[in-house]
Amino acid sequence: MRNQNLIVVISYFTIIAGIFFAILNMDNFQLTYSNAGHPPPLFYSASKQSVQELDTDGFFLGVFPDGKYQENKIKLNPGDKLLLYTDGVIEAKNIQRRLFGKDRLRNIFQEISIKDFSNGDIINEIYLDLSKYLAHSKLTDDQMMVLINNDPCS
Length: 154
Hints:
- This protein starts with a helix and ends in a 5-residue tail after the last strand.
- The chain has a single domain, classed as Phosphatase 2c, domain 1 (4-Layer Sandwich).
- It has helices at 3-13, 87-90, 102-114, 119-134; strands at 19-25, 30-36, 42-45, 50-53, 72-75, 81-85, 145-149.
- Strands 4-3-6-7 form a four-stranded antiparallel β-sheet. Strands 1-2-5 form a three-stranded antiparallel β-sheet, with no helix packed on it.
- The protein is of the alpha+beta class and 154 residues long.
């Protein structure tokens, strides 16, 4: 669907959509991606043992009729991981009304990825840390995470 068509749909329903769009080539593990106002996924490089945000320039989807979206590419080498998450994860607030935040998510993701946990264990450890941080605070938004890795043993 073209961006111009989305303007009509979005203005009718007064909805704004943020999206991270990616295509993973399974032959060479090259990820082509673009972002339109969504929290940028976190990419863990096993060779560098570090995490970086995968972000591109782009406003929310459908806001401008001739919106342009930057496209980037990155290769997922063996051991590399990609964490996609909703804003409900980083915007979750504890009892003191402090955000969980991107830095905290990034740090725990890197710490756990270095230990080479399984995908399920990485997600579980992040949710455990998030639950401890929130304690008895009420959830105000969805919290979803997806982990993709290039692990020949998975």
